[in-house]
Amino acid sequence: MRLATDLRMSETTPDSLIPYDEIVQEALRAVVGRVLGQIEMTGGELPGAHHFYITFKTGAPGVSIPKHLRERFPDEMTIVIQNKFWDLKVDETGFSVGLSFNQMPSKLDVPFAAITAFVDPAVDFGLQFQALVPDLAPEPHEDAENDSPERGPEQAGAGSVAAVDDGSNVVTVDFGRKK
Questions:
Q1: Which of 15, 60, 130, 138 ranks highest by number of CB atoms within 10 Å?
Q2: Which of 84, 117, 78, 110 has its CA nearest to residue 99?
């Protein structure tokens, strides 16, 4: 009887020895890779009204962006994959893409581990990720401004992921650890 008493469930959940949060984050980032990979296979043709807002940590390991963009976005940056992009390449660790910023062509290399949000506003779909890079507090940054003349007025200023936080199909994964 004493053994049964010692094995009672405690009121606090024990820390898991299995890194569930990391496994789920990795699986969700694979969704981004699969979607971008499908776009790459079509030669960069986005189906229908689909387009993507991708937010990533500019200081994360493996991120390669031009110096003027890193100075402008020292912490986090949101890009739009919609009308004007080229040379989309996707592999198992990340993607690279050509985009224009203020009429200046730029190549960006972004590992999936650096991504903090992926949104497809055309279908009200979004994923938010925990940052995998240590940082103290995010610095404020400007919304995406890569050249996109065909953007309608309903999309102006929608480069922020917070604009999608309206109860739509946004999946947020945040595993807090109890201490």
A1: 60
A2: 84
CB 80, CB 52: distance < 8 Å = yes
For the chain, the domain total comes to: 1
CATH number at residue 54: 2.30.30.220
3-state SS assignment for residue 43: coil
**For residue 90, what are the CA distances in angstroms to 15, 34, 55, 135?**
35, 9, 16, 27
| Residue 102 CB partners (closer than 8 Å, separation 6+) | 145, 147
Q: Can you read off the two tokens belonging to residue 172?
A: 């947020």
Q: Is residue 24 included in any domain, yes or no? A: yes
155 domain-assigned: no
Distance CA 31, CA 92 (A): 11
Q: How does pLDDT run across 115-170, given as a tens digit for each residue? A: 999 999 999 999 999 866 554 445 555 666 666 554 433 333 333 333 344 444 45
Question: Of 123, 121, 129, nearest to 33 (Cα)?
Answer: 129
Q: What is the CA radius of gyration of the chain?
A: 19
Pick from 136, 149, 179, 150: nearest CA to 15 = 179
